[in-house]
Design brief:
With 138 residues, the chain is of the alpha/beta class. Helix content is 23%, strand content 34%.
């Protein structure tokens, strides 16, 4: 099975991107990798690397709008509802905007607890705790 090796995301302002992504990614266990004017990366051991890039000079300098073609959101699966709450608070402190506060989403299932945040470039993340049915019962 093919695994995701890395994820590259273009942001409007690379320094603002660093201020917003760094606290969230380090809270998720990532470590700062390469820092360069043309990109900043975070690594999680042998797992997926996340890289932010500045937009190109000829690019439209407008934030991505949710629901348009392209990026939808990236969901991070975490171990508990408390971890969803903690990551949401870290994102808020780092300047992300709450799209949806942490809560249950029974339309997905009765165990699905998540929050959604968006950065200044319109990049949306989800923090989700969705334990298997048998684990939630015990």
């Amino acid at each position: 099975m093919a695994l995701l090796d890395h994820l590259g995301v273009s942001v409007l302002d690379i320094e603002q991107g660093r201020r917003q992504f760094h606290p969230v990614l380090t809270a998720l266990g990532y470590t700062l990798g390469i820092e360069a004017p043309n990109g900043i990366s975070w690594d999680n051991g042998d797992e997926t690397e996340i890289i932010i890039f500045p937009i190109r000079d000829e690019a439209d300098a407008a934030p991505h709008r949710h629901g348009e073609a392209g990026w939808q959101h990236l969901a991070f699966s975490v171990a508990s509802r408390e971890e969803v709450d903690r990551l949401h608070a870290i994102a808020m402190e780092a300047g992300w905007t709450a799209v949806r506060e942490p809560k249950l989403y029974p339309r997905f299932n009765e165990r699905y607890y998540a929050s959604f945040v968006e950065d200044a470039s319109g990049i949306r993340l989800e923090f989700v705790h969705n334990p298997p049915r048998d684990a939630a019962a015990g």
